[in-house]
Design goal:
The structure is a homodimer. Chain A has helices at 3-10, 14-23, 41-55, 60-71, 77-113, 122-126. Chain A contains 6 helices and no strands. The relative contact order of chain A is 0.08. The N and C termini of chain A lie far apart (46 Å). In chain A, 66% of the residues lie in helices and 0% in strands. In chain A, helix 4 crosses helix 5. Chain A is flat, with a radius of gyration of 20 Å. Chain A is an all-alpha fold. The interface between A and B is large, with 59 and 59 residues. The structure holds a DNA duplex.
DNA sequence: ATGCACCTTGTAGTAACTACAAGGTCAAGC
DNA sequence: GCTTGACCTTGTAGTTACTACAAGGTGCAT
């Protein structure tokens, strides 16, 4: 598949796809005789992953690490374990925050259904004491 | 409390706090006689909220909307409902993605404990078909 | 009176895109 | 065979959300 179609499918602009290639986060795909980039389903999955992970607030550096977990099949268990655990911690913190936010948004919607506006506690939902 | 202490507590740099004030996402606090910004617990909570929401991948525009939900206590139920529902949808999508990622990271860690490296399916965890 | 935290304005750098221009290639349809 | 649209390249510049630093000044504790 060519870059335009990949862009349409994944919702990532062609220019951003080329940018990812320059940054080395997406491998340079084979080219057609016409020198067009020729993508397959693996690149589509990888690009979807990058897009989702970015949307979840992971930095490119963090995404690179996650992709490395996936790419380096022949790395040591200890290395995988440490990295995966650190990512798992971050993921779990994010889930907790989002669940608090979800609860609070749900509460507000429910209050609205009763026509009782009620007060908004969104801020309190996310604003626990901060960790260093 | 002064800006430096607020920065230490929330993990947001002093310069970023002043930047948020310029951007109008954080109200200008009262000043001490020495013209120092004087913050209270409400600003601390708001700043923690902003920091967490940014970490979760929400744009400043989206955070502004969330804060508006919180600030405009006297707005229409219909307006609150529509906005809250749209944010709830985004939050739920993010939670689903993170849960898939958590499962996969957990699976990898478990495989490592068995000393069986196993293959990494992180990409597949996040790379469902894309929505437009 | 020395030093540190704060104040201001302003400029410039970073990350992760996003856009557009200039000039060229390729393949399908009229 | 020629136009049209999608792609190719390199390069520059704009955007968002910070982050850093400089210059020059104030407040306050030791």
């Amino acid at each position: 598949m060519r870059i335009g179609q990949l862009a349409r499918i994944t919702g990532v602009k062609s220019e951003t796809i080329r940018f990812y290639e320059r940054e080395g986060i997406l491998a340079a795909p084979p080219r057609t005789r016409a020198n067009y980039r020729d993508y397959g389903p693996a690149e589509e999955a990888r690009l979807n992953f990058i897009r989702r992970a970015r949307d979840l607030g992971f930095s490119m550096a963090r995404i690179r690490e996650l992709l490395d977990l996936s790419d380096d099949a022949d790395r040591s268990c200890a290395g995988i374990d440490a990295l995966a655990r650190s990512h798992l911690g971050e993921v779990e913190r994010k889930i907790s925050s989002l669940e608090a936010l979800r609860t609070e948004l749900g509460r507000m919607i429910a209050a609205c259904e009763q026509d009782t506006v009620g007060d908004c506690r969104i801020i309190d939902a996310l604003a626990g004491t901060a960790e260093p």
